[in-house]
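User: Quick sanity check before I run a bigger batch. Here is a single chain. Can you write out its predicted 3D structure?
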Amino acid sequence: MGRLFQLQLNCLRAMGHTPHMDKGGDGALRLKHIISLLFVVSAQYPLISYILHNRDDMEEITACLSVVLTNMLTVVKITTFLVYKQDFWEMIQHFREMHQQSSQRSRLTDGSGLVSEANKLAALLARAYCLSCSFTGLYFMLGPIVKIAASSWLGTTYVRELPMPMKFPFNDVDTPGYEFGFLYTVLVTIVVVAYASAVDGLFISFAINLRAHFQTLQRDIENSDFSLPEKETQAELQTIVDYHVKLLSLSRHLRTIYIPIVFGQFFITSLQVGVIIYQLVTHMDSVMDLLVYLSFFGSIMLQLFMYCYGGEIIKVESLRVDVAVRLTNWDVARPKLRRSLAFIILRSQREVLIKAGFYDASLANFVAICRTALSLITLIKSME
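Assistant: Done. Predicted structure follows.
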């Protein structure tokens, strides 16, 4: 259990967050987190300055816009985490306690296995996502270094470029301005990757854990025998109802704290898709640029997929509770118990949705955005 959400907690610790400190109300710590947020927000100035400096060059503008939008999305994620940080820690604690309880219930060995396997999958996906974000950032950072080394080796002149399309209010081409700009970009990238890995990784881990617990609930229901004496059956049904209520409460809580992030993820990703597709189509002749934009495109689509996949599995498993009840020998239960089972069925027919505004986190919407991307490629190619 100690490894539950371990990667996400490590990322949060790197940013100065711990459960004890965040719940303790230390003003200095809150100031440090606000400084981290303002540090990321400050990156908008050189990015927007770059757009204004190259306002007549559409390729440079679109190249910078994709980074601007990514930075905006990270600001939304950091702000949401700072506002709901106690809720995040409570969710983590709830799932840890449920995992422990599930492991201790000898009668539910199969259910315990579901939760354990779910945590392994969640850890694997969180690690893969963190590596994807890290490698994308590293690729941007290494690009200028490789070009400088190559030009030095070949004896050619190379005008130094920053890892990200930024324009500072000082000479950022020569020493020491270039080194300062490079270090600033590296630090912003580290903060962005750490918070994205933590917040996005927690969402997919919460969603996968909820799926496992919904599946455990379904197995509990299917293994129930309603032909047993009423007192015993009533106690078993009460346990099932309490479990179901708790899972629904956790699902609603998850939806509440992630509303700003889900809305921002869909809205900003939709804009990013258009910008990056334009870059991909207009840089088909440059292998280096193509690799950069493909990597970037894959990274933002992976972010969106994690939210869509998480929302989809919660929706599907919450609906399957209804099927589990129908597969039991409910027909032999006493009238009072049948009414209780009917309430479970009615509630289970209302799907649990992770949504924000008019955006639903579902695979159907993810596929729709992918189709839009393909349509944009066709449109841009036809306009050339």
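Residues 109-154 form the longest helix (46 residues).

User: Great, the batch can go ahead then.
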